[in-house]
Amino acid sequence: MTSMFHVANANQLLAGLPSFEQDAFIAVCETVELVFGEVLLQPTETINHVYFPIDSFISLISKLDSDDQIEVTMAGREGMLGISLVLGIDESPLLALVQGAGTAFRLNAVSFQALLLKCPVLHQRLKHYIYVVMCQLARSVACNHFHRIEARLARWLLMTQDRAGCDQLHLTHEFLAMMLGVRRAGITLAAISLQTRGLIRYQRGEITVLDRPGLIEAACGCYNQDCALYARILPVA
């Protein structure tokens, strides 16, 4: 059975909840395994479940009519999938794709919305999370337009490492190109540059982060700004 300690420490949005709200969450959630490449939600599809990742993480991808697509944000243990339900909207404009396999808390939509009515602290934290995501989405648009591919790749690897909780990331150039919305050749050149500087090692679809401080220095300032925003808006007591 899911323990109160487990809930409080497994996902940052649930940290600091009073014991009553933790008990209420435990009563309606289940722990599920998310599989790499699994599509949890299609754009405009009705949200039937929300997910609070524990050691998994989810890419949220914007798709155009031409089938072009680009990742605009991620949800790992710092976030959740299905946040639009907090606004009373039962659909999402984004494709939700499991990028990192692992576990997550899952609640059905009806139970989640009922939970919000009796858990004011959780409700408030989730409204703050909406603001964080809005800021991240806005920054992502500007970052994709103005910043160099190498800096964007460094930022994306740091974001992925934060959620994966390890230095080894299983990523192909094709997947990275799709996530960043650039040509594969651009990813290749950027990865070679980061590897030449001793920041990463890339081999056969696996990237190993060798020098995290150096990678932070190589990334655009968006990474540090996102981290600082989250810490300020969603502090853990």
Automatic annotation (TrEMBL):
Record-annotated HTH crp-type domain positions: 147-213
Coiled-coil portions: none
Protein name stated in the entry: Crp/Fnr family transcriptional regulator
UniProt KW keywords: DNA-binding, Transcription, Transcription regulation
Alphabetized Pfam families for the sequence: HTH_Crp_2
Domain of life per record: Bacteria
Species of the source: Vreelandella vilamensis
